[in-house]
Amino acid sequence: MKKESFIISILLFMVVMISACRTTITTTTDITSTALPTVVYNDGTYTGTGEKRDYGYEDAIVVIEGGLIKSITLRRLDSDGAEVDYDMWTGEEYDGKTYPNLRKYRYDLAEDMLEIQSPEVDEISGATDSSIGWKDAVREALQKAVTGT
Asked: Is the pLDDT of residue 110 over 90?
């Protein structure tokens, strides 16, 4: 009996000691105090361009109404600044080369941006460079919409 009491006492002592050593870290976040400031866009039509490369670049026309993005038009331009022939950019082979389906992708990407009111959407696999160029073009247009230029 003494032996059992001694063992129980030791176990109880160890439990108390272990719980006394345990550290609990509790964090809370006040979302209202850490929220990003709301961006205010000036109404109007704004344009932006992506990085110009040897074979061309992307541009965007963004329309703001009531402070919100109302429409986004994404275009692919050749190195001379002329809009490409989207009949060639269908995801199929054309003259021995397969071009991404920019005919569809530019609408899909614009729709994604409109839905969340931001260019911060995922790139489209198979058209990563064009997606990045379009996102950069929309960012530039939106920056103009913030400053009203």
From this structure: yes
The domain of 15 spans 2-34
The two structure tokens encoding residue 58: 């992307």
* Percent of the chain's residues with pLDDT above 70: 75
Asked if the structure places residue 77 within a domain, the reply is yes
Residue at 63 is within a domain: yes
Q: What is the pTM of this model?
A: 0.71
| Location of structure tokens 């379009």 | 134
pLDDT above 90: percentage of residues in the chain: 52
**Pick from 79, 82, 135, 78: nearest CA to 105:** 135
Contact 59, 51 (CB under 8 A): no
Sign of CA dihedral 140, 145, 147, 148: positive
Q: CB–CB of 130/105 below 8 Å?
A: yes
Beta-carbon contacts of 148 under 8 Å, excluding residues fewer than 6 positions away, are: 42, 44
Going edge to edge, which strands form the sheet with 57-65? 44-49, 57-65, 68-77
- Measured CA to CA, the distance from residue 145 to residue 8 in angstroms comes to 73
For the chain, the distance separating the N- and C-terminal CA atoms, rounded to the nearest angstrom, is 89
